[in-house]
Write a structure and sequence with these properties.
single chain, about 150 residues, mainly beta, 2,3-Dihydroxybiphenyl 1,2-Dioxygenase, domain 1, 2 domains, about 40% strand
């Protein structure tokens, strides 16, 4: 089997603001920035003729780990009145390997993100039995998506 999950697309309130957050917090770069009109066939959201704006951000890998930021322009997609502060069924948990977990947390806070856990030490046992020591931090992006950022010590 050759299937590969290469991107996750998130519904956002403001694609430009979200792209700036991902660039600043994680150092991602813009791979694609395009408006498009929905066909009404493939996406289980919105409807035929809806105008949207899609920005795709990428990290260092040119194939996997991309984040799509999809904003409804016309008609606008209503956002929840309050953003989540807990992870619930159906919501993703994004795990980021970083060389600066503390810095990512600081940058996220400076842009208004809700910080769930300040940087903390933790460890886990590998499948081969070895122990890896980590520094982690957890926070939500500006649209309520949850991130676990880990740095190997």
């Amino acid at each position: 089997m050759t299937d590969l999950i290469k991107r996750t697309t998130l519904m956002v309130r403001d694609a430009e603001r979200a792209a700036e957050w991902y660039a600043y917090v994680f150092g991602m770069t813009r791979w694609l920035d395009t408006p498009f009109t929905l066909s009404g066939i493939g996406l289980a959201a919105g409807g035929k003729g809806d105008r949207t704006h899609l920005v795709i951000m990428r990290c260092v890998d040119p194939v996997v780990g991309m984040i799509g930021l999809l904003q409804w322009l016309d008609p606008p997609m209503p956002a929840p009145a309050e953003l989540p502060r807990r992870v619930v069924f159906g919501a993703p948990i994004f795990v980021v390997a970083s060389d600066d977990a503390k810095g990512a947390c600081t940058r996220a806070r400076s842009l208004g993100s809700h910080i769930h856990a300040e940087p903390y030490d933790w460890s886990f046992t590998n499948p081969d039995g070895g122990v890896k020591k980590m520094l982690g931090a957890t926070f939500f992006d500006l649209d309520g998506y949850f991130y676990e950022v880990n740095q190997q010590l």
